[in-house]
Amino acid sequence: MRIILCGFGVVGQNFAKLLLSRSEDLYAKHGLKPRIVGVFDSTGSAASSAGLDLNRLLEMKKKYGSIKKYHNKEKDANGLEMISGLEAEVLIETTTSNYKDAEPGMSHIVNAMKNGLHVITVNKGPLALAFPSLFELATYNQVLLRFSGTVGGGTPILDYAKNSLRGERIVSFEGILNGTTNYILTNMANGMTFKAALADAKKKGYVEADPSLDIDGFDAAAKLVILANWIMDMKVTIKDIERKGISSVTTADVKKAASRKCAVKLIASCDRKLVVAPKEILLDDPLCVNGTLNAITFNSEHSGQQTIIGRGAGGMETASSILRDLLDIKQEISRN
Ligand code: HSE
After folding, report:
1. Is 243 strand, coil or helix?
2. Which residue's CA is the closest to the ligand 1 atom numbered 7?
3. How far apart (Å, rounded) are the C-alpha atoms in residues 233 and 145?
4. Whose CA is nearest to atom 4 of ligand 1?
5. CA of 116 to the centre of ligand 1 (A)
6. Is residue 159 lining ligand 1, measured as CB closer than 6 Å?
7. Based on the structure, what is the number of domains in the chain?
């Protein structure tokens, strides 16, 4: 399976490492032979129709901070040229999420689908802004669009709700979908101020390049959009989410919650409305997880409440979700 990889940051590099370490069993167990034929990021590009040497690619990125040196050539192909010019079956989109215009990811995905490529995205921006129309485009072009890493990182939240609970009717759900704000609120519950907790989260590398995406609830809202479209068949975008972040949560709020055996968490909920906002939840609620963990509780008509807990971020965790999607695409293609 020939792949074009957009973005060679933490997730892209971890995906390359994952392919290197798993190539034998992927072929033996699943008959999958992934070949990355093109990679580009903001620093350059590399392409080979025979498949790129992933060790060399990782080495160049580590040594020079860029993949441009892979071929030792002056001129680089830009991403869109690569998408329309290179023979491939799948595009993997890992560039940074942005919620203003979703670029450059949006153009990568749209052009790939128009060129007949299946798409796997871990970039939430395009889905948050245009989930319904991107799905229409995928159907129109008869390609598959997969995105399991966009919610829950390596934890298969979307797959659980869509496939394990098939036949059920999910009535509502609520969850902690952003690891960074959960880490900050956990630290605040342990006595830190918001400012110190944010600085600590930044030091640990959890916070997005633009901290407002985490703090003001955009990341959680994007994940809520994806869940609402995929699981509840709602046709919504980020504009439909009522959103409030955690910057106004004080140490006093957190203490008051503790005195009531509760914790303040940034909760994304889908009931009658779609809301992201800080909320007090009981300490013994299964949803009440700490640190960078994510958790989500589904309320379904016949099987009751179920909560899934897991790490919602991380380079290797997210890379593993891409592999899951790749196997899913392979299976769908073989079935058809
Ligand atoms: N900034 C996100 C989080 C990363 O903290 O959960 C994963 O989407």
Report:
1. strand
2. 313
3. 16
4. 313
5. 30
6. no
7. 2
CA trace torsion 309, 312, 317, 323 (10° rounding):
90
Q: pLDDT tens across 99-122, in order?
A: 999 999 999 999 999 999 999 999
Q: Which two tokens stand for residue 193?
A: 């101020």
Range of the domain at 164: 157-311
pLDDT in tens, 22-50: 999 999 999 999 999 999 999 899 999 99
The answer to whether residues 197 and 178 belong to one domain is yes
Residue 268 CB neighbour total at 10 angstroms:
30
Model pLDDT for residues 286-311, shown as the tens digit of each residue: 999 999 999 999 999 999 999 999 99
223 is catalytic: yes
Give the CATH number for residue 286.
3.30.360.10
Residues 182 and 292 in one domain: yes
Answer whether 0.90 is exceeded by the pTM.
Answer: yes
- Which pLDDT does position 219 carry in this prediction? 97
Q: Is 219 in the pocket of ligand 1 (CB under 6 A)?
A: yes
- Asked whether residue 92 falls in the same domain as residue 182, the answer is no
CA of 106 from ligand 1 middle (Å) equals 19
- Single-letter residue type at 24: E
Percent of the chain residues past pLDDT 70, beyond the cut: 99
pLDDT value at residue 72: 74
- Do residue 48 and residue 147 come from a single domain? yes
Pocket test for ligand 1, best of 148, 177, 180 (most atoms within 8 A of CB): 180
Please tell me whether residues 216 and 76 are part of one structural domain.
no
**Which residue bears the tokens 């958790």?**
295
Do 215 and 270 fall into the same domain? yes
